[in-house]
Design brief:
Elements lengths: L1 E2 H6 L6 H9 L7 E3 L8 E4 L1 H16 L4 H29 L3 H18 L1
Antiparallel strand pairs: 1-3, 2-3
Length: 118
């Protein structure tokens, strides 16, 4: 598990306060949050995916100067794209499990729909 201090040390200008703000805004969801509900210090456990998200948030906010509202919008869109990619992957696996006749029928239907959009 990656700690809050580990995340702060990975980026020169990143602070605990900034990470806590991202958590409060829902941009970052640590695995474990203890103490905050009782008014204590925030204690978090982060996964490698969380660490990558912190790097993205840091780059967007610090290097590209996104304000908090823009940051939320961009991250929401990235999350939506990720969700769609997962759904498409699931659909592709389901199609791959079908017979060749069904796969051909799906491919033909997709071509027909695509041609109708042009």
């Amino acid at each position: 598990m990656i700690t809050l201090d580990d995340l702060v040390h990975r980026h020169q200008r990143l602070t605990v306060t900034r990470i806590e703000a991202w958590i409060e805004r829902g941009l970052l969801r640590p695995v474990d949050v203890q103490g905050a509900a009782q008014g204590g210090d925030l204690c978090c456990g982060f996964t490698p995916v969380d660490a990558a998200r912190v790097s993205l948030l840091y780059e967007l906010s610090e290097d590209l100067s996104f304000d908090d509202e823009s940051l939320e919008t961009v991250v929401d869109l990235i999350d939506q794209v990720h969700g769609l990619r997962h759904q498409i992957g699931t659909l592709a696996q389901a199609i791959a499990q079908q017979s060749e006749d069904v796969q051909r029928a799906i491919a033909a239907a997709v071509k027909t729909i695509e041609a109708g959009r042009r």
